[in-house]
Fold:
Amino acid sequence: MGLLSRNKGKSFEREIGQRFRTALTPCLPTLTVRRSSQAERAYEADLIIEGPDVPAFITTLWVECQHAKRAHIDPPGKHRQAVRDSAEFAARTRVVRTPVVCWRANGERTVWLTATMGDLASLLALPRPDVGADILATVALDAALGALASRSLPLGAPRGGAF
Structure:
């Protein structure tokens, strides 16, 4: 991997982390999002979300990022990698993570989030599908983050409709 490619990946991971912080910090002030260190890369997701008061449905996300030419974008392949890596992590730590892929093709503005239908339903507090829970689905990252933020608000706080 070339230097420009690594820098683009690093920059994209920082952007995704900033999007998580911007969307979720107002309702979860203890939330931190950080990139894995080079030493952790083989054992951790691209982004790590932490915080003492942050709900587990957010801190257990296994976030992989991909920013590439349209021809090289492969959300299903990246998701398979996230599933494999999170399973290896679970075998070592006994902590189960929910694999998601945040991705964008070069030249596009929208960042997308890809996960299984079942995982998306769980994340967004929607009814789990009876069939097709393992089928991949893609939603705009900002919309998904809005729904997560709404789900994270304290009881009685005003809620907006993200979806």
